[in-house]
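Incident review: delayed structure delivery

Summary: a single-chain prediction request sat in the queue longer than the usual turnaround. Root cause was a stuck worker, restarted by the on-call engineer. No data loss occurred. The affected request and its eventual output are reproduced below so the record is complete for anyone auditing the incident later.

Affected input:
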Amino acid sequence: MKYYGLQSQITKNNVNSVLLLLMFPLVFYALAWLFFLIMSSGVDNQEMGLSFVNRSFLSVVPWITIGVAVWFAIAWFSHTAIINNATNSRPLERKENKRVYNLVENLCIATGMKMPKVNIIEDDSLNAFASGINENTYTISLSRGIIDKLGDDELEAVIAHELTHIRNRDVRLLIISIVFVGIFAFITEMLFRSLRFGSLGKGKKEGGGILIALMLALVGYLLASLFRFALSRKREFLADAGSAELTRRPQSLASALRKISVDPTIEAVKRKDVAQMFIDNPGEPEEKKTSFSFANLFATHPPIEKRIQLLEQY
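Output delivered after worker restart:
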């Protein structure tokens, strides 16, 4: 896969960030309008039915907008704490490991970028990820295992991979997609619980309305997830290419990926949305990583042997 250059990728990801910010609310509006259209299907007079649909839709638009904005604001400003808690990561002090700091600093000097924060996850498995939305929050998190078990060239290649995510603004784009997919997941779960346990689902009419809303929420969740997964897979290829470009040693990253693939599971990570941020998703079934199938549409990472194969072609 061709690497298109830093500035073009930054521009592309910035545009995609804006499109995501616009697309998800539009999906909410479209599904809300479709819900009222389905609910009005029993009205004989089509003009009256359409008028009911439009009036009902316009009445909920402000609430949808406020709800999405509040959810996004909370997730946007608290994402660092959420990620750190989900991974049990903590700041790695320079005096604890000068080797890691030297590798990160040298790469940042070579690329002219501000050095991100460095966190450590106390786990013997091998994995790493980048996070943050701006220079104040950009962070590279490395597991204890990946620090101890990789050679300098291999670890430098992994760090270069994560720095490329930061340089390309991948991390911000991914966080935006995770936030909005999380909204669909929350609505779907809330509607399911209302239908199964709540008093609203006991009446025939109310139950039918909730069932329709649940089906539409599932459609929205599926579409948003597929887009997020495709976005996530592509960003891994681009970051691999960026690492090869920075270090001039693509074989080092290929070797690191082989070692990581043997034991990527970080025990503390239980959240699937956080797990997809890692260089190799620690919560993804092996069949999604190692074979081409329909299941790959729902994979957050491309097959690791494909990534290694592309790196070995440099």
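Verification: Residues 130 and 214 are 34 Å apart (CA to CA).
Action items: add queue-age alerting; document worker restart procedure.
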